[in-house]
Amino acid sequence: MSSNHVPKGFTTKRVHADRLLNRPQHGAVHEPITKSVLFDFDNAQDLIDVFQGKKVGHVYSRSSTGSANALQNMVNDLESGVGAVCFSTGMAAISSTLLALLKQGDHLIVSQFLFGNTNSFFSTLSRFGIEITYVDVTDASNVAAAYQANTRGVFCETIANPVTQVADIERIAAFCSQNRLLFLLDNTMTPAPLFEAKPHGVSLVFTSLTKYIGGHANALGGAVVDCGNYDWTQYPHILPLYQVADKTQWGLTQIRKRGLRDMGATLAPEAAHALAVGMETLSLRVTKMCKNAYELARFLDAHDKVKAVYYPGLEHHPQHSRSDKLFKHFGGILSVDLVDGADPVAFLDALSLVLCATHLGDNRTLALPVAPTIFFENSAQERAEMGITDTMIRLSIGIEDSEDLINDFAQGLAKI
Ligand SMILES: *Cc1c(COP(=O)(O)O)cnc(C)c1O
C-alpha cells in the first residue's frame, strides 16, 4: 500500500521510517544492502557532475552508499535534524568530525566525565596543538569560567558513564549560543525518545549506533546529526569549497569530505541494515530497559551489601530533578559500589544470568568492573576526578523480565 500519510507517534515513525523515507524498490520495507564499491555512469559528464555535487549519486562507496544514506535519513529523522553522517563506529563519528572541524590553536571545553575512549581521543587531539580544558559540566559556570578567545566549542555527554553525572545542558546550550560556540553533545546514553537534542539547543549530536539504537550487539556504527541550531557562517574554519548555497549544510559538507571521505571510517552496508532494523524497536527496548534499571536501582539501593548506587532516577542523585526535567526516563545505566571488603570480582562471578562484558544498551543485562577495564589506562588521580572508585561495577540493564534480574542480583549478593 502506498501512503502519503505521515505518522506522528515515535514508534510508528521508527517502524515505517525505512519504507517512507527511503522508498526502497518494489515495495520492500528495508533498503537493500548495497555492496558495490564502484558506480557506472551512462556518460562521462554524469560522472563529472556527481563528483562535483551537481547531480545526486554515488561515486565510490567509501564516500557514500545507498545503505549508509538510508540509515542517515533515518537517524536524521530521529533527531529532526538538517542532515546526518554515519560512520563505522561511534568513535569514528566523534574523531572524524572533530578532526574535520578543528585546527591547531583552537580550544575546546570538555567534560571531565567522559566515555574512556573519547577522553583518550581528546588527549590525542591535545598532542596536535588543540587545547583542551576539562571541567565539571554538571555546573555551567565551570564552562563559562574556562572560556577563552580561541574556544570553538563545548563537548559533553548527557548522562556520563559510569557515575551517571548529568550535564547542565540548558545552561551550557545558552552559554554556547551567546558565544557562538559549537555545542557538541554525545547522546549515546539517552537516545530519542529519552532526550531531544534539537529543542535543547545542541549544535551537533553524536551517537554510538552500536549501543541502544542497534541494540542487539550485532553491528558497529556511529552518527553525527546537525540539529540546525548553529549558524555555520559564524564558524571560522569552513573551507570556501564547502560554503555551499544551503548554509545549513556547511558543517556537514566539511564533515562528509574531510571527515568521512578523507579519514575513511565508512559504515559497512551490512551494519547499516542491522542498525536500521534495530532502530524500529528503539522506543520499546529503551523504555523497558529504563523501567528495569529503575526497579533494580531501588532494589540495590536498599540492599545491605551495597554501599552506593549511582542512578539519576534515585532521589538522592545530585542531578535527580534536572534529570526528571531533561529526560523522559532516567536511562538504562547504573553503577554500584559494594560495601567495604566485598570483592567485586567474586560478586561478578556469582551472577548467573547477567553477562560480565563491556558494552551497553544491549538487550541483555551486562556488568563490568570499570576501574581495571575501561579506565585501566587512566591514573588513579584521573579516575578520582571522574568520580570512579576502584571497586565500582557498571550495569547496563537489558530488556529481561525484571524479576529474573532481581533474583540474579539477590543470589549474587547473597554469595559474597
Ligand atoms: C560506546 C560509546 C562511544 C563509542 O562508540 P563505538 O560505537 O563503540 O565506537 C562513544 N560515546 C559513548 C558515550 C559510548 O558509550
From TrEMBL:
SUPFAM superfamilies: PLP-dependent transferases. Coiled coil: none annotated. GO terms for cellular component: cytoplasm. GO terms for biological process: cysteine biosynthetic process from serine; L-homocysteine biosynthetic process; transsulfuration. Keywords: Pyridoxal phosphate, Transferase. One of its GO terms (molecular function) is O-acetylhomoserine aminocarboxypropyltransferase activity. The modification N6-(pyridoxal phosphate)lysine is found at residue 211. Its cofactor is pyridoxal 5'-phosphate. NCBIfam families: PRK05939.1. Belongs to the trans-sulfuration enzymes family. This is Cystathionine gamma-synthase family protein. It comes from Alteromonas sediminis.
